[in-house]
Amino acid sequence: MKKLVFTFFIALLAIPSVLLAQENDNNSEDFSRWQVRVRGVAVIPDPSATIEAIGGDVDISDSFIPELDFTYFFTENLAVELILGTTKHEVHTVGSDLSPIGGGIADVDLGEVWLLPPTLNLQYHREVFKNFKPYIGAGVNYTIFYDADDFTTVKSVSYDNAFGISTQIGFDYMFTDKFFFNVDFKYIFLKADVEVDASNLADNLSIPAEVEINPMLLGFGVGMKF
């Protein structure tokens, strides 16, 4: 999966600049510059981690959330999109070595955490045939971690907010001049620093980790131009 996503990302960056050259200098100003969408989004992390002291890997649960996004068109083809939503995930380590604290190989429950990941993508849209408008995009994500709780094994877990790179592909299908159906896929390259306070298991035990979350987001929804 990672190789597939990496190939897609390289292809996205390699799109020839001739696409921009195709923009008509006399592009009509008679078009809707704003659109809003409401989507249901499956958030599927593709996680891995480097965990000091106890080793192992990490697993992060999937989630399904509502999402709201706004798009502004500079021209009929070039646009910028702001995506808003929040999601909660369960986190645990996989195959950690707890022998330093008298245990064996085990998974460690790290509780739950909420993510607020506002994402801004620059997009290129193109109508390839009547009413069918695919697009590609790339941009920046800033993920805010909050309300980490429900720790059953360790004392607490803290997450550093982090920037990521967003890639995107999707399409709009117009029902009317204003209303449309949307399918959208994003992959966000996101890495965060995590600190696990396990002082309840051993005196002054703190476990730093570098976690790649790398969520895939598959969305379906409806939208309106205005």
UniProtKB/TrEMBL annotation:
GO BP term (any one): transmembrane transport
UniProt signal peptide: 1-21
InterPro entries assigned: OMP/PagP_B-barrel (IPR011250), OMPW (IPR005618)
GO terms under cellular component: outer membrane
Pfam families: OmpW
Assigned keywords, A-Z: Signal
Protein name: Outer membrane protein
Organism the protein comes from: Psychroflexus halocasei
